[in-house]
Amino acid sequence: MHELGEWATRQHSKFKQADVDPKRPKLTADSGMTHVEARILELVAKLHPEPFAALHRFSEDHRDFVDPVTATFDREIQFYVAYLEHIAPLRAAGLCFAYPQVVERATAVRAYETFDLALAAQLIGDQREVVRNDFELHPPERVLVVTGANQGGKTTFARTFGQLAYLGS
């Protein structure tokens, strides 16, 4: 609990009228309700205890049930939202993004003006230029050999290639 919440609980404990029913779930800020909505729901539950008791029993009986589609969606949507938040300042700085095109038969693998996402975020934050790279592989090519001077961007290019493969999957 946050320090402010603990302080408020201590300050308002003298106004407590009765013990809370331990069978009734506690409504928290995570429930998405305001304190007024939560209090209204508590009063409705007192007026109509049978449906709420049945709902509580159902919830307890199925506590471990998670629909696989819902679990997958939950995990993936968190990733997508985090990705969109991460790239927003990069887009605002003029860097381009595209959706991968996945095909069934072997075609060229290519990316234009691509960059390392982590390094780009750092450089944009420091108001520095982001170096972009292009590459293409045409069948039967399957290997890239990257050469160059020390500190010339070989590792950054390899990280970029790995990020593209991961995000494309």
Short description:
With 169 residues, the chain is mostly helical. It contains 6 helices and 2 strands; from the N terminus they run H-H-H-H-E-H-E-H.
Describe it.
The longest helix is centred in the middle third of the chain and has 25 residues, at 68-92. The protein has a two-stranded antiparallel ribbon. The protein has helices at residues 3-12, 35-47, 49-61, 68-92, 117-125, 154-168, and strands at residues 109-114, 133-137. The chain has six helices and two strands, in the order ααααβαβα. The radius of gyration is 27 Å and the shape is elongated. The chain is mostly helical.
Share in helix: 40-55%
Residue fraction in strands: 5-15%
Order of helices and strands: HHHHEHEH
Radius of gyration: 27 Å
| Count of strand segments | 2
Which of globular, elongated, flat, extended, rod-shaped describes the shape? Answer: elongated
Structural class: mainly alpha
Rounded to the nearest angstrom, the distance between the terminal CA atoms is 39 Å
**Main pleated sheet:** 2 strands, antiparallel
**Overall mean confidence score, pLDDT:** 83
Q: What's the number of helices?
A: 6
Low-confidence stretches: none
The neighbouring-strand order within the major sheet is: 1-2
